[in-house]
Design goal:
The structure is a single chain. By secondary structure, the chain is an alpha+beta fold. It has a 5-stranded antiparallel sheet, with no helix packed on it. Strands 3-11-8 form a 3-stranded mixed sheet, with no helix packed on it. Strands 5-9-10 form a 3-stranded antiparallel sheet, with no helix packed on it. Helix 1 packs antiparallel against helix 2 and helix 3 packs antiparallel against helix 8. The protein is elongated and about 115 Å long.
């Protein structure tokens, strides 16, 4: 059987992996909250108090958002009461007071900022209430604002119909993000299924017992008693993997009783019997004993099995 993946499936997986990148939403510059340079600047002065009115535009459509700023400059210690809109021609969307700052002349600067929405189309006048600065009263002049409609002048209102309520319509950017997330999830699931299929078709072969034992012999501990115990454990696991018989956990006497002495060899049984439990020995194993034990284990790992030795004899 052909173990390679069909080229058509590979092409489909590559295309699905690239779709989330192509469908990713592009960053859009938002200019709704960006402050504009004011086109209206009205100033009123009474004594040492100065009031300033700033507006970013005087011609707008019904969907615009206007930025209105009322600023008062007064000497330190003056109690200032900032104004409020005096008519209902415009709808305040947001209002906040900026922190009081000190101007270059030493006066304190009070600022209140509104974000307002225009009302009905036509010419409207925006006016504010009086500004109170201790005993002084200041009134800013009204501002004339022309609001235009989005509909043509000859449009018939009876012919205008909404296809769906605005709340139920999804923005384009949100829809693109959901589509990209769906495609990305589908690509990830496809990749996971492909990896599982590939592993089943091409399983990783197990390492030979002699190679596993050789790798373990290269990582022996340094302490003498732990080193001897590791040598015995490596030998037992190698014999179990080589002959398919349970060797770890069995004593040398049990191995002789089960008839494994002929296959393992008397020297292997004697080695296991001498080092039955090296961890519980009182005496510390000598360096010569450790060298002999490691040499013996490496010889057993390198020698061919008993069946191959018998077949090699003439």
């Amino acid at each position: 059987m052909n173990r390679r993946l069909p080229p058509l499936l590979l092409s489909a997986l590559s295309a699905l992996s690239a779709l989330p990148i192509a469908c990713a939403p592009r960053p859009e510059k938002s200019t709704e909250n960006a402050p504009r340079k004011p086109v209206v600047c009205e100033t009123v002065r009474t004594g040492s108090v100065v009031a300033v009115l700033l507006l970013d535009r005087t011609n707008a459509v019904v969907s615009d958002v206007l930025r209105l700023v009322a600023e008062v400059r007064a000497p330190a210690g003056t109690t200032v009461e900032l104004p409020q809109p005096a008519n209902d021609a415009f709808l305040p969307l947001d209002v906040y007071d900026e922190p009081v700052q000190t101007a270059g002349s030493g006066k304190l600067r009070f600022r209140r900022v509104w974000r307002i929405a225009p009302g009905a189309p036509g010419t409207n006048h925006l006016s504010l209430t009086e500004i109170h600065a201790d005993d002084l009263r200041l009134r800013l002049p009204p501002v004339r604002i022309v609001v235009r409609s989005l509909l043509p002048p000859d449009a018939d209102p009876s012919e205008l119909r909404d296809l769906a309520p605005p709340v139920r319509q999804l923005p384009v950017q949100r829809a693109r993000r959901r589509g990209a997330a769906t495609l990305l999830l589908f690509a990830i699931l496809s990749l996971i299924l492909f990896r599982r299929w590939h592993r089943r078709r091409n399983p990783i072969p197990p390492l030979p017992p002699e190679r596993v034992a050789a790798q373990a012999l290269d990582r022996l501990p340094e302490l003498p008693r732990e080193r001897l115990h590791a040598l015995v454990r490596i030998l037992r696991r190698y014999l179990e993997a080589r002959y398919g018989r349970p060797v770890p956990g069995r004593s040398a006497g049990e191995l002789r009783a089960n008839g494994l002495a002929d296959r393992l060899g008397d020297d292997v049984i004697d080695f296991l019997e001498r080092h039955e439990s090296p961890r519980f020995d009182v005496a510390e194993p000598s360096a010569e004993l450790l060298r002999d034990a490691e040499r013996f284990v490496r010889d057993v790992v390198d020698r061919p099995p008993a069946d191959e030795r018998e077949e090699a004899l003439p």
